[in-house]
Amino acid sequence: MGFSTDAVHSGQDPDPRTGSVIPPIHQTSTYQQDGLGRPRLGYEYARTKNPTRDGLERNLASLERGREAIAFSSGLAAIQSVLQLLQSGDHVVCTENVYGGTYRLARKVWQRFGLKFTFVDTSDADQVDRAITPETKLLFVESPTNPLLVLSDLGELARRARKRNVRLVVDNTFMTPYFQRPLEMGADLVVHSTTKYLNGHSDVVGGVVVVNDLDIAERLRFIQNASGAVPAPFDCWLVARGVKTLALRMMQHDRNARELARTLACHPRVQHVYYPGLALHPQHELACRQASGFGGIITVELGSYDNARNFMESLEVFLLAESLGGVESLVCHPASMTHASVPVEERARLGVTDGLVRLSVGIEDVEDLIRDVEHALEKVSAQTLRG
Ligand SMILES: Cc1ncc(COP(=O)(O)O)c(C=O)c1O
């Protein structure tokens, strides 16, 4: 089936008992069994298995064109479960400007248990090659990255990883399977924070891992049950509801962001615009080749903390908040919000400056978004004029 048909119907069959078009929310912790050792359809306890979660997992697997999806209680719980596939002494090569929480999980949690991490610029496949050692088990890539929107060539990395017997994991949160499908490009695992575009309505925290290899799927299922970071049935139901409009939302996010990025790129008070849809983005050609859209995230450099604060506090339609990917436009300050857990020197090296502002462009009327941004830019000091 086509993408939108799958988004609406996969794993979302009407209730066979009543015909209810929308599947019920199985808000239960346990299930009555037909006799000792005779659970119905394998349902024994809701940490292990829940019909609402099963439906969401089938739906998300179909969208990523994977064989199995395993849902978790947050994006980080999904990433954490992927790392739990490893053992002490194993090495992971990771994109250097990943989401701050992923960096923190690696450095502050898993490093204590003997996993080793090397953070490199995965947009340069040769750097990745050089970082791989005989202990390397995973290559973890975020593309585009949060917040600098650096792309990595997923097909090329998949080929190189496979040659070295390393599994490629792609965080596809920013693009969603509507625009980019890493498994089709050779990735082994795809992770998402479903909190973002997949749910799309800023009312759930969730995550998912999608795979083709049934052996990895089984190991992740074991971890899902053994560690217990499972999503609540109501949250699964909300994400499944959100996914039904994913295609429509992504088209509008993308359309609005393209127009806003063009406006920002011409504005004298904006020092730099990061958006893969602009021809000036150094990887614009790769963005066109590996994804069918550019998404709704734009990052701008305003030159100083004061400029960033004045701009953000003057916006009226864009809400000052962490997170992204909801229908409403949000603005955040990566250095003090999403990336506060990345050490100052590391942030400086990566370019996550105090003047950097990330916009999550929603699906409102683009004229209102442009007017809002232009008005707020009046509060940015003219001294930051481009040289
Ligand atoms: C790219 C990316 N991956 C993972 C996460 C973590 O997801 P969650 O907040 O659902 O744990 C985030 C959160 O912002 C993110 O932006």
List keywords for this structure.
5-stranded mixed sheet; binds pyridoxal-5'-phosphate; 36% helix; alpha/beta; single chain; 12 strands
What can you tell me about this protein's structure?
- Helix content is 36%, strand content 14%.
- The protein contains 14 helices and twelve strands.
- The chain has a seven-stranded mixed beta sheet, sandwiched between helices. The chain has a five-stranded mixed beta sheet with strand order 8-9-12-11-10.
- The model has no long low-confidence stretch (mean pLDDT 96).
- Bound molecules: pyridoxal-5'-phosphate (PLP).
- Residues 74-76, 99, 101-102, 142, 146, 171, 173-174, 193, 195, 205, 207 line the site of pyridoxal-5'-phosphate.
Q: TL;DR of this structure?
A:
The protein is an alpha/beta fold and 387 residues long.
